[in-house]
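Input chain follows. Return structure tokens only.
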Amino acid sequence: MREPLIVIMDGQGGGIGRALAETIRAAHPELRLRALGTNALATAAMLKGGASDGATGENAVVFNAAQAAMILGPVGILTPNGLLGEVTPRMAEAVGGSRAVKILLPSQRCSIRLAVGPSQPMQVYLQEALRLLEEELAKED
């Protein structure tokens, strides 16, 4: 059986994506993590965080979203013009329309507010994302 493609998507400086890559890589060094950046800086940050490989730009997001088993990133990746305009409508459509399970982290940098209780430190969200990823991986076994 081929291992699932886990996609981490981010834009701007790639800080959330890098933190996701580091968190997942530390817990699961065997996973195939693909960094998808809206720009080269974000992709490079996620690669430094431990992603297996990476690609940048609209076509890379559209192509890889269709291949992914899971997509992780800030909630803004679902929004046309999200992440300060870096997520194109085509990118948001590809991510939202993908059959992949989406594990999204709240972000104060977009105008989406999640009704999940008081704001938490990013580390709390990263650990919850890891827990959800592990839950989904267990379903595939």
